[in-house]
Design a protein that fits this description.
By secondary structure, the chain is of the alpha/beta class. The protein has three domains: about 210 residues, no CATH class; about 90 residues, Translation factors (Elongation Factor Tu (Ef-tu), domain 3), CATH 2.40.30.10; about 130 residues, Nucleotide-binding domain of ferredoxin-NADP reductase (FNR) module (Rossmann fold), CATH 3.40.50. It is about 45% helix and about 15% strand. It contains twelve helices and twelve strands. A six-stranded antiparallel beta sheet has the order 4-3-6-1-2-5. Strands 10-9-8-7-11-12 form a six-stranded parallel beta sheet, with helices on both faces.
């Protein structure tokens, strides 16, 4: 019983949070327990503590984005990336407030901003702050600045390494707070682990992926301008996955190029020798999928994600809500459940523009032979003979179809951001427990 408790998802998730807080606040604890000689007043010490906390948070960003399965499986990558964005902004504020307090408490330190004449430790602080600030600005406003994903990702990595490396160099240069050998070793360990994770994610892991290539078997058209990209493992057994998970796909180039894209698997989680992706032509890369030729090499990094019914074996049933190409992971869930002859009830609410845009329509209907499956199609542009639901998935539509005993089901939602926000709000108003609602976002970048 004790072992089961320690391995429960909630307990593991809480432990990761506790570990993050301990590592983040470690600099402050060190300063409180081992203050440097000749204290210079509360505000100076507080400023320094903020700087160290900001540096620790910057270093831990490498851990958050390293795709560590044990961490990702506790929260899901989309939640981790949201956390990464918010904590990066908080860390930047810490880094900016740190010198601001120093300048107010000791105005003479303003001369450190004279870059040509400032000591090297001050120059490193300025460069680290500029790198960090540039990284945050180009991330938040990437689309407005029209920075393509691949160049942005490379620039983001370089700026992150510079910010952390130069920040650590600044801390060493100041010396007052890293004067003891064990403090230098502690901080060096934190920085080296962070840099190693960058090397592993950007170099080692892609190299390992080259040893397990895939080959494109076929590309099949589907309704709704969606294409099924079917891959087979080349010289290895491939991998199984929990239905609803996704993988990062690199197509026709080496994975070392960092040009990879996340897509949900649309095939059965039980089948390792053929992995399929449902990809809608909506961008520069996705629009080229239809032209990919059989025999093209591909590489996969996965599986990832917690958007799967396999985590909820004790659920009485499931409500699956999809919009457009958001049907892809949900289709994998239903396909796998049909093959397993899952005897629990499934409700699918599927919103599309028109009847012609329903992807996997025939396949979805065929699942009713092996599943207790109810499908509610919601069309924005219905034809004259249509007698089903029209418009949008909102509170009133959900109230008509979801089970009366709301807490007995788990709800999986994958759609465009506007629809997901409306569904989340509707489920909340209908008193569906928030712990039973699981969201999958399209865009992870």
């Amino acid at each position: 019983m004790k072992r089961l408790l320690m391995h429960s998802p909630i307990v593991v998730a809480v432990l990761w949070i506790v570990g993050y807080l301990l590592l983040t606040l470690l600099p402050l604890l060190v300063l409180l327990l081992y203050p440097p000689p000749g204290g210079r007043g509360f505000w100076i010490e507080f400023s320094v503590a903020l700087g160290f906390i900001g540096l620790a948070m910057m270093a831990l960003q490498f851990v958050i984005t390293a795709r560590v399965n044990r961490i990702d499986s506790s929260y899901g990558i989309d939640i981790l990336l949201q956390f990464h964005r918010y904590t990066s902004v908080v860390a930047l504020l810490m880094v900016l407030v740190h010198p601001a307090i120093l300048f107010i408490a000791q105005p003479e330190t303003l001369q450190l901003l004279n870059f040509p004449q400032a000591p090297w430790r001050a120059r490193m602080a300025v460069l680290a702050t500029l790198a960090f600030l540039t990284m945050v600005i180009t991330t938040i406003w990437r689309k407005q600045l029209k920075i393509p994903y691949e160049p942005w990702r490379a620039i983001h990595t370089i700026l992150a390494v510079l910010a952390v490396g130069l920040g650590f160099g600044h801390a060493l240069g100041v010396g007052n707070y890293l004067g003891l050998f064990w403090k230098v070793v502690l901080w060096s360990g934190i920085i080296l682990v962070s840099l190693w994770l960058i090397i592993y994610v950007r170099l080692v892991k892609p190299w390992l992926m080259t040893r397990k290539p895939y080959i494109v078997e076929e590309v099949l058209p589907q309704q709704g301008d969606v294409w099924t990209l079917a891959l087979r493992p080349l010289g290895h057994e491939g991998f199984t996955f929990a239905p609803g998970q996704f993988a990062w796909l690199t197509l026709n180039i080496t994975p070392l190029s960092m040009r990879e894209h996340p897509f949900s698997m649309s095939s059965s989680g039980e089948c390792a020798d053929r992995i399929e992706f449902g990809i809608k032509a909506v961008g520069d890369f996705t629009s080229t999928i239809k032209d990919v030729q059989p025999g093209t090499k591909a590489y996969l990094d996965g599986p990832y994600g917690v958007f799967t019914i396999d985590r909820y074996w004790d659920s009485a049933g499931f409500v699956l809500i999809a919009g457009g190409v958001g049907i892809t992971p949900i289709y994998s869930i239903l396909l796998t459940a049909a093959q397993r002859r899952d005897d629990r009830p499934f409700l699918l609410i599927y919103a599309v523009a028109s009847w012609e845009d329903i992807t996997y329509k025939d396949e979805l209907e065929s699942f009713k032979e092996n599943l207790d499956l109810t499908i509610v199609y919601v069309l924005r542009k219905a034809h004259d003979e249509w007698e089903g639901e029209t418009g949008y998935v909102d509170r009133s539509l959900l109230a008509k179809h979801i089970p009366r005993h709301r807490g007995s089901r788990h709800y999986f939602v994958c759609a465009a951001p506007v629809m997901m926000a409306a569904v989340e709000r509707g489920l909340f108003e209908l008193e569906v427990p928030v712990t039973n609602v699981h969201m999958e976002h399209f865009n992870l970048a």
